[in-house]
Amino acid sequence: MTADGAVMTGPCCEKDGSSRPLSVVVLGSGAAAMAAVIAATERGAQVHVVERATVGGTCVNVGCVPSKHLVRSAQLQHWCDEHVEISDGCRCDGVPNAHKLHASRQALVERLRWQKYESVLDENPHVTVWHGEASFEDSRTVRVRSLAAQATQTETLLHFDRCLIAVGAEPYIPPIDGLASVPFWTSTEALASDTVPHRLGVVGSSAVALELAQAYARLGSRVTIFARRGLCTRTDPLVGETLMQALLDDDRIRIHCGALVESVQCEDGVFKVTLTTSQAVFMTDALLVASGRRPSTAALNMAAAGVSWHAASGQIPVDTHMRTNVPHIYAAGDCAQMPQLVYVAAAAGTRAAINMTGGEACLDLSLVPWVIFCEPQVAAVGLTEAEAQARGLRTETRTLPITSVPRCIVHGEKFGFLKLVAETPSMRIVGAQAVAAEASDMISTVAVAMRGHLTVADLSGMLLPYLTASEAVKLVAQSFTRDVHQLSCCAG
Ligand SMILES: Cc1cc2nc3c(=O)[nH]c(=O)nc-3n(C[C@H](O)[C@H](O)[C@H](O)COP(=O)(O)OP(=O)(O)OC[C@H]3O[C@@H](n4cnc5c(N)ncnc54)[C@H](O)[C@@H]3O)c2cc1C
């Protein structure tokens, strides 16, 4: 058995006892698919990958990689603007060159796509890649239609012993009057742009919406966010309040909460956005729609294979082994019923491959830390205080302002906190939420502690290095029993 609970078996072959390798068809070539391809071929399967667009899927091409590059570029620009005395010495002229930023973002995408996806597929003798759109013919066959752009149109039928659906998700476009006839951006266009609009309207308050909104503001746009409700409404209310304060500290950002966009028009390159709620009208030079992502399952003809899906969300329900309702067809990643995060997709892909090839591996989603890469970052893991109480747990919590964390003080951070939720009387940690420049590191530390079932006392007594973000975890644990303001400098 492996560390992640997988029972490994020998090389796989079909159940008829023949020595032919198991034939696995993988739909998609993103994070879930790639993890599955690697695990399935290691375990002896012959794999056919079907991809209708660019190999690599969302994360490397139009998701995590280019968005974090943009966020980082914008942070550096902001840092130069805020620290002129140092940045002058660093040859920062104060004007971002959007064209150069775009070129360097693209170069990174191409390099990582080759390293992590294309070369891995090319060099594996047990993998065949088919470029085209997949749809089910029946429960044992996938049809691949070659792409319209290809010179000769072909159709190929692939028969499989096992199939993994890993087709990901695409931007959800809300039903707003006029939207379909204007040249709005999704995150894909926002990341492909080599210009910075003077004014940018952002519809939505998803992680993607907030990250791109702040990045564009820091590169010079005047940004207006239209948020249906508030910010980060699914976690502790203090998170949304604190992030709101931090974002609004930049006078290039405006946020309209409770804003329902009624209609959009575009004339001579200027967008006119009308809100239902107040009938207010906003003019903007570009419009980003980032209201979440919907599984790309529409083209798959899943009914032909008997695979069930949720009509409303488009998601494919799977069990903890990534099995759909059809025993030899699996699903993983953004198209399946699981959080739309790349590390979840990859973990699900690996486990699906193990299970498809005769092993036994289950995906435990009880602890999924998540991060929004704004500045300050937002991150959380486990239960909020309200969620814990709704489950009947008795809780004790502490909230440590970042002004009590040495690293945050030295870095001059203005907004943020770390909140720890413990269940009583055991004082086991059941959740944490953070807003801080390095909230992701604080929450990763808490996630490891929760996996080890640690208590507040365990965390209080740990040696965590002085002037790290993780030190905040120890400090907030100590604040359950002591006034942290009275502690010595490095909180022994
Ligand atoms: C802007 C942005 C930023 C993000 N940032 C982060 C982040 O910081 N951290 C994080 O954890 N997650 C982030 N995500 C989410 C993350 O990118 C996804 O969760 C992850 O990439 C999903 O992987 P996947 O394998 O399920 O699907 P994908 O990577 O989307 O792959 C699916 C593939 O299937 C192909 N396909 C679809 N239909 C068919 C068909 N019928 N036939 C053949 N091929 C088909 C698609 O073309 C695609 O290549 C971000 C997403 C976006 C959009």
From TrEMBL:
Substrates-to-products reaction catalysed: Hg + NADP(+) + H(+) = Hg(2+) + NADPH
Molecular function per GO: flavin adenine dinucleotide binding; mercury (II) reductase (NADP+) activity; mercury ion binding; NAD(P)H dehydrogenase (quinone) activity; NADP binding; oxidoreductase activity, acting on a sulfur group of donors, NAD(P) as acceptor
One of the protein's GO biological processes: detoxification of mercury ion
Keywords, ordered alphabetically: Disulfide bond, FAD, Flavoprotein, Mercuric resistance, Mercury, Metal-binding, NAD, NADP, Nucleotide-binding, Oxidoreductase, Redox-active center
Pfam families from the UniProt entry: Pyr_redox_2, Pyr_redox_dim
Cofactor or coenzyme needed: FAD
Disulfide bridges in this chain: 59-64
NCBIfam families on file: MerA
Family listed: Belongs to the class-I pyridine nucleotide-disulfide oxidoreductase family.
Protein name as it appears in the record: Mercuric reductase
